[in-house]
Amino acid sequence: MSRLEVRDLAAGYRRTTVVSGVSATVDAGGWLGIIGPNGAGKSTLLKAIAGLLGRSGEVLVDGRPLMSLPRRERARTIAYAPQIPQLPMGLTVTDYILLGRTPHLGPLGWEGQSDLEVVNELLTRLDLTHLAGRALHTLSGGERQRTVLARALAQRAGVLLLDEPTTGLDIGHAQALLDLVDELRTELGTTVITTLHDLTLAAQYADDLLLIADGTPAAHGTPAEVLTPDTLHTHYAARTEVLHTPHGTPVIAPTR
To answer: How many CB atoms lie within 10 A of CB 37?
Structure first.
């Protein structure tokens, strides 16, 4: 179980700052959803948290600076699944998911029975069993997305960063994926941060939402606090009606 703190984080590319002034705390086992219009800086923020971009500010895991950790320990601490992954050629689905077990392997680097059990469980729960022996380059977009997410989940890291994990997935596979992430945080205490375009899914799964607009935080709170018609109109230029499930979870309905 890991507690993540982001303090006054800013990041970008070369001399261009894309996102700045971000501070947030996600308790161990919590789920923070990062939302915002296209080009707001959501993916840049996630990469900065993962330590993949030059940045200012601090990212702390259980009070320790993430980048001060040895690389192997860092890989056991934080897992990241990009929105547009670069997949290695020549690997099968099973081989690729097994890469997620690398931080946990012994000195000889051989996977054991427990590693294979983790992979087989993910193949089943993400509907990939029938693709286990398929080469990565033969997969459809949705199949690739599920495979990349399985590799990240196989790390069993304390903090899980997912960039648009439901992109390219039909509603059934999207729900199955988010259900699995939710189960892992319940079973293992995994701390989850996701970027999501689907605001209704974000509201149903995340404990808190951080709305990024023009590279800076625009709203932060529970889904009910953040997802209001006025806020969505201001930052998305959208006409919406906010409905609610029997449990009080917001459902975003666009209106003509």
So the answer is: 17
Q: For the chain, what percentages of helix, strand and coil (3-state, to nearest 5) are there? A: 40, 30, 30
The closest alpha carbon to 59, from 4, 19, 22, 3, belongs to: 4
Q: What is the arithmetic mean of pLDDT over 128-152? A: 91
What CATH number has the domain bearing residue 183? 3.40.50.300
Residue 34 CA neighbour count, 13 Å, CB half = 31
Nearest Cα to Cα of residue 250 among 236, 235, 232: 232
Question: What is the number of domains present in the chain?
Answer: 1
Q: Give the count of beta carbons closer than 10 Å to the beta carbon of residue 137.
A: 11
Print the domain residue range for 132.
4-254
Q: What is the mean pLDDT of residues 118-135?
A: 93
Give the gyration radius of the chain's Cα atoms. 18
Helix residue spans in the chain (DSSP H) = 42-50, 71-77, 93-98, 113-125, 141-154, 171-188, 199-205, 223-226, 229-236
d(CA 100, CA 239): 42
**Tokens found for residue 93:** 């689905």
The pLDDT assigned to 184 comes to 84
pLDDT at position 108, please?
65
pTM of the predicted structure, to 2 decimals: 0.91
